[in-house]
Each structure stands twice: as structure tokens, then as C-alpha cells.
Amino acid sequence: MALPAPDPARGARRLLDWFAANARELPWRRTRDPYAILVSEVMLQQTRVDTVVPAFLRWMDRFPDIPSLAKAGQEEVLKAWEGLGYYSRALNLQRAARLILEHHGGQLPREDESLLALPGVGRYTAGAVQSLAFDLPREAIDGNVERVLCRLLDLETPAKDRRSQARFRKHIRGMMAENSPRSVSEALMELGALVCLPRNPRCNGCPFEGDCLARQRGTVLDRPVPGKRMPARAIQAVFGILTDGRRIFLQKRPPEGLMANLWEFPGGKLEEGESPRKALRRELFEELGIRSREEEKVGTLRHSYTRFIVTLHVFLVRVEDASGVPAPGKMTGRPSGWFTPLEARGLPMPAANAKIMSRWVEGLESDAEI
DNA sequence: GAAGCGTGGCG
DNA sequence: TCGCCAAGCTT
Fold first, then answer.
1. How far apart are CA A343 and CA A287, in angstroms?
2. How far apart are alpha carbons A79 and A55 in whole angstroms?
3. Which residue is nearest to nucleotide B9 (CA to C1')?
4. How far is the CA of A55 from the C1' of B6 (A)?
5. Which fold has domain A233-361?
6. Is the CB atom of residue A307 positioned under 7 angstroms from any atom of strand B?
7. Which nucleotides along chain B are within 7 A of a protein C-beta?
């Protein structure tokens, strides 16, 4: 049975009543200075309120207006940003201050184009400045607002989806039609921060409880739905099982990053238009200084990672003189070595490499001919 | 469109 | 303890 779609105007009244009674006292809510609003919004990008409050007070004390920020030294600006992270935000803010002096007579512009042209100001921050500082009917859709509206409207499309964003804008415009855009923006974000929480929403006492479609359908914890993952991309890669007739060659991955410290066969991804055999020769030369001539294709296997499906071309490469591999000067700082199948079995390897081991290397006695 | 950019809080 | 993630933007 179809539930009525939430009415923006009615919801807005309840939301604003709730906000009037429950809003936190935050320093940037005590001002309507567009510069101060901008500073707070940039600081709040991906950063928690508790972290921002003291930094905001410090910053406004040190750079109380656009001219003072514009003429400050870079060291000073970075120092004032200390602890907030994403330091390019600080430098962008100063560049923005200089642009505002140069092109807008020292006053923050209100138009989309001018705001979006400021470094560090994107769709969200522009809308936040427009609605919070200028009380213009523009949406400020951040992660909080997305969550609130995905639940209120019980959207089955991911929050970032165009269709979702269009619904958000329409609903927010409806709420702003007869209410202060400033209040609507602030209240939506505050609701997301205090009540409509990601994991433990406090639906009792939510001003939207009677309207919220997700609440009525029991789907609150399923909204927003996770973004649709990109279909796994197909990748071609090549591995070489180097053998001196008794042992195989393995190298250790770097100590940081993906599959850190695991042991793997030499090889790599195929380049554009490259054949597997050619890719193997290139990789062996680049990584180990080997000029291989007689690779024997032993098989192909497919392996799925989170984001791609790899087709692995596996070759056996016979090496005359194991002592020359890797060539001096290659593989600097990356452990590598020759191992019998028995020894290799004891080393940690990524799953795809382990598959190669079990399919083409293991099962042979350690002294058997490979 | 994905990856990179920092930090602190939380389960 | 540690992975996840929070008022995004840029390249």
C-alpha cells in the first residue's frame, strides 16, 4: 500500500521547531559574516565539529577578515591550520581571499559561478555559503543531508546518484519555499549530526518520525543504499615462474600498501596492445635485468579482486645461472630469492600467486626437476 | 571517475 | 587494536 510522500512544507515546520529547541551553540552560528561562514565550512569538510571549534576561534582571532588572511604569510596560514589535516584547504582559503580582493572588491560573491571559481569551494560549500550567509534558497547537500533525505524519502538509489540528487534538491527547495533557507540548511545538517545517525539513528524524537518513509517501512538502516560498485574491470597480467631446474624465484612486495610484505612471482600488467609473452619479457628485464628468450606458456587462470578480474598468463622460464638473478643493481631494497617448492610453500603469498603455486609448482618434490 | 589528501573518534 | 569514516574538493 502506497504511503504518502512527505510534504516538504509541513516537514520543514516540524524540523525548524526541533532545531529551535535542540540546536547546538556553535561559534559560526553566532555570526552572519560570509567570510566566517566560509572559513567554518571549509574547516568542516571531512572534519569533526569538536576538532573545528577551537581551530575556528583561533583562526578568526588571527585572521578576522579577508584582507588579514590575504596578506598573511604561508607559514602563518599553515600554522593556524595545524591539527585540522588536508592542509591544501588552508592554502586554498588564502588564495580564495586574494581572489575575492582582486575580483569582488573584498566581498564574498553570491553567484554560483563566482563561488565555484574559488579554490576549495565545490558544490556543497557554495550552497552552504549561499544559504547560511546570504539566506538564498540554495541547497547545501553534505553527507548528513544525504542520509536524512535518503531515509525520509526512502530512496533506493545511492545518495550520489543523479536521481537521488535531483530528489534532494526538489525536496529542499520545497522546504525553503516558505521558510528561511538559512534555517532549513542548518537544521537538516543538525538533524543528520544529532538524530539521523548512520549506525544508531535516534528515531524516537525525530521531527520527521511521522513522515519518514524508511521509518514506516523499516528500512532506516538500509538507507542510504551503498553506491553501486563499478562492475569489475578486466585486467590482463603475466607471471613468470623462473626456475633453475630445482628452485623457483620469488620476490617480496614492498612493506607498505597493497598486500604488503607478501611474496610473489615476478611479472606485471600487460600494457596497451602488448602480448602476454612480450609483457613478460619486458617485466623480467625491467625488474630483474633478465633477457628471456624461451618462455613456456603453462596456463591461464582468472582471479577476482574487489575491483577487477585479472586474467593471469603464466609462463615457465628456465634460467641458466641463478646467481645472476636479479642482476646487480636491480630490485634495490626489495628482498628476493630462490626457493625450493617446499620452502616456498611456507612463504605468505597473495591468493593469485598461491593458486599458481598449487597448480603448477607444488606437488613436486623439492629435488625434482621442474 | 577514481585516487589522494590528514586527523581524531568510535565500535 | 584497528578498520572505518566524518559538514568535500581537486586532479
1. 23
2. 11
3. A48
4. 15
5. Nucleoside Triphosphate Pyrophosphohydrolase (3.90.79)
6. yes
7. 1-3, 5-9, 11
Give me the pLDDT at residue A366, please.
40
Chain segment A334-362, per-residue pLDDT in tens: 788 899 888 888 777 777 777 777 777 76
Q: Is A274 a catalytic residue?
A: no
What is the domain partition of chain A in residue ranges?
8-222, 233-361
Identity (one letter) of the amino acid at A18?
W
A236, A349, A211: which is closest to A300 by C-alpha?
A236
CB distance A239 to A313 below 8 Å: yes
Per-residue pLDDT tens digits for A173-217: 999 999 999 999 999 999 999 999 998 899 998 999 999 999 999
Same CATH topology for A8-222 and A233-361? no
Distance separating alpha carbons of residues A260 and A252, to the nearest angstrom: 8
Domain spanning A8-222, CATH architecture: Orthogonal Bundle (1.10)
Q: How far is the CA of A47 from the C1' of B7 (A)?
A: 8
Place of cell 633477457: A291
